[in-house]
Amino acid sequence: MATSSVTDEQLTGILAGYAGMVAHVVRDPQRWLGVDDDPPASASLPARVLDAVRDRAVGEVTPASEEWARQPAGRRVDWWVRRIGLTAGLAAAAPRFAGAIADRVPLQSALGASASGLAVCAAAREHGVTDPADWVPLLGTVLFGRDLVPAPDSVPATDAERALEEAAEDPTEPPSAMEALGDGAKRTVRTLWRLARSFLEVDDLLDRRPRGGIVTRTLARLPVVGVAGGWLDERTAIRTSAKRTTQLVATGAPQRR
C-alpha cells in the first residue's frame, strides 16, 4: 500500500472539523437526517417504496422518544446503523448509476467514508464517548487505519452548525434532480454531501475505508444496477464501522486524558 502524503496532524484537523459537524447531526437526527416527511402524492413508485421500507426499519423508538434512554446501547447503535444505511447510505450509493465510472470520482469514495464516519461517531456516542474530539482517533482507526490522538481543539459549535445550514439551504448541491424527494430527504442528502466534502482533502486515503464484500463491490461497478450494489456496499461498510467502533470503545480506545 502506497504511503499517503497526508500527515497525522493534517488528518487530525480534518477529522476534528468533520466530528464537529457530526456532533450536530447525531444530537438532532430529525433535523439533519429528517426523512420522516411523507413523499408527495406525485412521488414515483420507488420513492413510495423507500418511504415504506424506512418506516418499517426505523420504527417508533427514536432518539426523540422517552423510551430511547432505556434501550440497551447495542439496540440504539443498531437504530443508527439502519437510519444511516437507509439515508446516508442511499445518498452515497446514488452516483453508482454511472457504474464503474463513479469509482474515478473522488466524491463517490468521500460519500462512502462520510456515511461510515457517521456510524463511528453515533456508535461512540451511544457507548458514552460524547466529546467530538474523542471521536477523532476512532475515525482515524476505523476509516483509515491511522493511529491518532484526540483533537486538541474542537471546531466552534456555531461554525459547524453554520456549515451544515449553508449546505442544507443550497439548492445547487448536490447538482442532481431531487424533485421526487421530500424536503427532509433533500436535507439528508445535502447534509451528507457537506460532510463528504471534508474528505476530499484526503482522497488518497479513501481506498482504505471500510467496504462491502467482493460480490457487492463487483455489482457496484455495473451501469444502472450498480446503484443497488453500491447501496449494499455502503450499508455493509456502515455496519462494519459501527461494530469496529463498539469494539474499540470496549477495549479503551484513545480518549482525551
Q: How would you describe the overall organization of this protein?
A:
This protein is mostly helical. Helix content is 58%, strand content 0%. It contains eleven helices and no strands. Helix 1 packs across helix 7 (132-144), helix 3 runs antiparallel to helix 4 (73-86) and helix 4 (73-86) runs antiparallel to helix 11.
Radius of gyration over all CA atoms, rounded: 17 Å
Largest sheet: none
Kindly name the structural category. mainly alpha
Q: Which percent range describes the beta-strand content? A: under 5%
Distance between the termini: 33 Å
**Mean of residue pLDDT values:** 77
Q: What is the overall silhouette?
A: globular
State the helical fraction. Answer: 55-70%
Keywords:
mainly alpha; 58% helix
Task: Please describe the topology of this protein.
Layout: H1 8-27, H2 29-32, H3 45-58, H4 73-86, H5 88-93, H6 106-126, H7 132-144, H8 157-168, H9 183-197, H10 214-219, H11 226-250
Helix pairs in contact: 1-6, 1-7, 1-8, 3-4, 4-6, 4-11, 6-7, 6-9, 6-11, 8-9
